[in-house]
Amino acid sequence: MTSIKSLRWLMRKKSGLSDGGKSSFKMKQLPFLAVLCTIMLFIVYRTTKYQYHQEEIDKKWSFWGQPKVYPSTSGKLKGLPRGIIHDNSDLELRPLWSRSNSRSKAVYSNSNLLAVPVGIKQKQNVDAMVQKFLRENFTIILFHYDGNVDGWWNLDWSSKAIHIVARNQTKWWFAKRFLHPDIVSIYDYIFLWDEDLGVEHFSPSRYVEIIKREGLEISQPALDPNSTEIHHKITIRARTKKFHRRVYERRGSTRCSDLSEGPPCTGFVEGMAPVFSRSAWYCTWHLIQNDLVHGWGVDMKLGYCAQGDRTKKVGVVDSEYVFHQGIQTLGGSGHRMTKKQGGVGIDVRTEIRRQSTWEFEIFKERWNEAIAADKNWVDPFKSDQRRIRKRRDTQRLPKNNI
């Protein structure tokens, strides 16, 4: 019996020594674990900071303000190392040779772009326009719809411009094919103007300063009230204002009031002299239809590309205005009558107008079909339309019912 008690006592003693040894071992491990945790936290901190730093660098060098994304067609580019792929370009002219000390990274001198469809008959007017924009360090691109490029080489600035030739094509045809957003991504603003605009009272630098300050993503200069051709009242210059975003009209079929929340009363510019921010052009380029070259109907939908509330992001600048001469170019007065295969003569301008009207109807149909097909699309201005109808219904109620 005594031996059993002695054995139990020895076992308890041994167990106590064992527990004490383990506790002692654990106590010795604590400093080591603390150091290890500190090292791990430091590594996590450095890794996170590095990733954040890299994201900021990517955003800085991405023209669209987003981290660099490699092309989705990477499967077709698997033979190339990823770092060699650049998904943006520009319209800057490059020298065939340069001094060794100037071969470092390119510095872009021009931050805005002027693109104009031109014919030789409007050479004098285009010359006056381009000279103003060149003084403000704009990149100039001329779309020659009459095929005559040689007639422009005697102008001093002609060699500084980019010339693209395609006979009898419209401004929107050229823009869709040669102003891809990835190509014009270095430019803050894209001026897509007609050739028949007088710029005597227009300063490109002052204009850009105004639209930047007022946050206008889509804009146009106001039209001189004495212009030869004016289609919408909102485009007419208001003499007492620097800019305006809406117009009031009580006459005619289009009534514009404070209740009006869409074009052509507000959130509207016309297609003759639009100016787009980089982001707005990215959206507008996709809105332009590849085959509907006259662009009818596009101006009514530009507000969807305004990068926000079109009643605030779209406007007309009054202090910098232009004179619209209203000269018909494609198929204009200088074109003769042509003949069909049957020998029947036709008026080119009449046929162009018919084509434009047909394209306008097709564009509206495509818009409605696209809305019906895209179940996830939400009209950002639909709530405004419901609110307007509610206001009108309230105003029509008899006072004794209110």
Automatic annotation (TrEMBL):
InterPro entries in the record, alphabetically? DUF707
The organism is: Glycine max
Return the protein name.
Answer: Lysine ketoglutarate reductase trans-splicing-like protein
The record's annotation in PANTHER family points to: OS06G0731900 PROTEIN, OS07G0564800 PROTEIN
Looking up Pfam families in the UniProt record yields: DUF707 (PF05212)
